[in-house]
User: Fold this.
Amino acid sequence: MSNQQIQSTSLFNNNVFKALSAFTFILLVIYLVSIFILPNSGDTVIVVAAAFGAYMALNIGANDVANNVGPAVGSKALTLFGAVAIAVIFEAAGALLAGGDVVSTIKKDIIDPALIADSKTFIWIMMAALLAAAIWLNIATALNAPVSTTHSIVGGVLGAGIAAGGMGIANWSVFGKIAASWVISPLFGGIIAASFLYLIKRTITYKEDKIVAAKRIVPLLISLMTWVFSTYLLLKGLKKIWEVDVFVAGGIGFAIAVIVFFIISPIIKKSATQLKNSKSGVNRLFTIPLVCSAALLCFAHGANDVANAVGPLAAINDAVLSASIAAKASIPLWVMLVGAVGISTGLALYGPKLIHTVGSEITGLTKIRAFCVAMAAAITVIIASQLGLPVSSTHTAVGAIFGVGFLREYLKHSNAKRIAEIREHHEGHAPDEVNKVLKEFEQASIKEKAQILFNLKKKNINTPFTKKERSSLKKVYKKELVKRSHLYKIATAWIITVPLSGLLAAFLYFTIRGFMLP
Assistant:
């Protein structure tokens, strides 16, 4: 690396440089809105709201996008630079091409707009909610905690709404569903990801000839991924420009998957022939699917979650122009640009921090494990949306990573216990004989391993170890492959997101209201 490249990298990683770049973006938005938008609206509140929207977009890019590309980076399917480049392109494309023309003014119907006194009060609520959500996302990013931007803005709207209209303004049944998603999202994601990983282990990596197994199974897995992601993209990524039900989306996705299967089968078989008969060799077959999944997840995220940044801003713009409160508000091009450019800028400046956390720090991710995470993220959203369950893409993806990690822990622990049993039964035998048995056990298939253990137990050999000693031995072999500090920190951040955003929004509502009143 040249001195110039080193200086450039050092500058880009400098916190002062990043803060100045983010501040410059917000100032640029303020300037452009003041020049081109303010003369038409005639109310300076639109300038302040645009600044809040730009700040929110920056924080969404810094925090939320990491879930889409983090696993691909952690598994080394993508470099950090490549992931950021793909995310910037596809997030912006999703926002601008499929972000839609209108947006709900009250996200998730969390409060009743009929109980809001007037359009000015509505504007203050939206501004407080927008700023509170952005501040909380900023704090969460600084703490390396991936949180839900949707929950952040919902908490902000709820808190500011209650501050303006009292407890009766809140739709508590809707809030109950959102609260339930704190458990549903990570649980679904974790179970589905762990199930896929176990399936791949049983059908490929546990086999003696992994390459032969991979030639047969990997094309099916990639085709299944094509089906899932095609359906996901039609239901979530393109729903604002072409709305279809799950059966139509699934049918189209299945047709695409069949075509993909016949195209990639010979390619996979040819590539697999040149690989080593090992887990690392099989892992290489999942590189391109991971890159594609990261791009599609970013596109769908840009199409959907940009509304978290520009939705309140579009609602404020509509309220300023019409002096009324509408259930839906149009999204002007300038508002969408603030969201798209802001998310991309925030991702480029601060995204790498969370990408590293999601991709590497929670648990070790190979390409196979990252594939399982991506599948779980898409499948969970599809199932939950059809059941009417509100799920968070952040909670789902991170829950999937934890699910993969905990399955690895369980399998490692189980294998270590089996090895300990073999050592116990061969206590006193020559070391070479014990090592030979252990080697045979490691190379055996699942059924053969079970038979080996059954035969050992059938011999009923007395072991010199006491129950207490065996318990201690198990603890020694129990390895933690999921960092518990991250588990506790992230879970805490998820739990406090809505109440903290709500309290902050209530405080900001009274502050903004105080400034706005004549």
User: Anything to note?
Assistant: The longest helix spans residues 287-322. The chain has a mean pLDDT of 86. The chain has 20 helices and two strands.
